[in-house]
Amino acid sequence: MPVDKPVRIAGLYGHNPQQNQILAALPEAGYERLAPHLELVSMSLGMVVTEAGASMQHVYFPTSSIVSILHDTRDGASAETALIGNEGLVGVAQWMGGGAMSSRAVVTSAGYGFRLGAALLQEEFDRGDALQKHLLRFTQALLTQMSQTAVCNRHHSVAQQLCHWLLLRLDRLPSNELSMTQELIANMLGVRRESVAEAAGRLQDEALIHYSRGHIIVLDRSGLESRVCECYADVKREYARLLPGRGAGSSAPV
Predict the structure, then answer these.
(1) How far apart are CA 80 and CA 63, in angstroms?
(2) Which H helix or E strand runs over 108?
(3) DSSP secondary-structure letter at 17?
């Protein structure tokens, strides 16, 4: 799916690159070097930011969108290994030297973000200044999320995985509502749709969520937190330790 036409910073109508926490954490000089080159992009649901194996010409700093990193198998199945919101950016391979990602990156919660030429990001990274430090810390946090996802998918129930999945998204959204079908959630978790339906039904019976036609409203966040496995707390603690502004209870766009 093609990326919507980008818009230069002039005339952003309330959109601010510093709604992304990495950009917000940069010192003034570092931010000013990047600012003229940042382009506002509307990131629609299902937009493919990059395909597996493709070299990215731009990196993306989400502000109000969420991007899922998906690994596809040869038989057509897929599973989400990580998600990225306004705490980070899409394009780790650019500064880690790989040149291309081994997984797809797809928008799973529509919103906005800013894109920057990959060559410009590499130039700024090579300066060894604040951006380099923040990108390396983000990479470590992302690796923690990926490894914890692998553990969660192997050892915890579908209900616990679903609570984990919902809470990670709530941390990156400005509201308690999500638009996602059970089939898509099943694809993200790498489980059967019937298993997701059963788990979601139990959460709804306990008045923790309300689900209707691909629309989920979280009614009791503390209730989800009491039922989730330790994976959520482990990931959240590491993000709070490593990333600027990612404290306990933080959520997306400010």
Answers:
(1) 20
(2) strand 104-109
(3) G
Residues 63 and 102: their CA atoms lie apart, in Å, by: 24
Confidence of residue 248 (pLDDT cuts 50, 70, 90): very low
Token pair in block for residue 145: 């999320």
Looking up tokens 């003229």 gives 36
Residues 6 or more apart whose CB falls under 8 angstroms from that of 65 comprise 43, 85, 107, 109, 110, 111, 112, 113
2-6, 56-60, 110-114: the lowest-pLDDT one:
2-6
Residue 35 DSSP one-character state: G
Residue 177 DSSP SS3:
strand
What does the pLDDT look like over 19-29, one tens digit per residue?
A: 999 999 999 99
Q: Residue 217 has which token pair?
A: 């409203």
Q: How is residue 4 annotated by DSSP?
A: P
Please give the order of strands across the beta sheet that includes 177-179.
177-179, 215-218, 209-212
pLDDT at position 246 is 60
User: Where does residue 24 rank: exposed (0-12), middle (13-18), buried (19+ CB within 10 A)?
Assistant: middle
Using DSSP, state whether 116 is helix, strand or coil.
Answer: strand
Query: Residue 249 gets which letter from DSSP?
Result: T
**CA–centroid distance for 25 within its chain:** 18
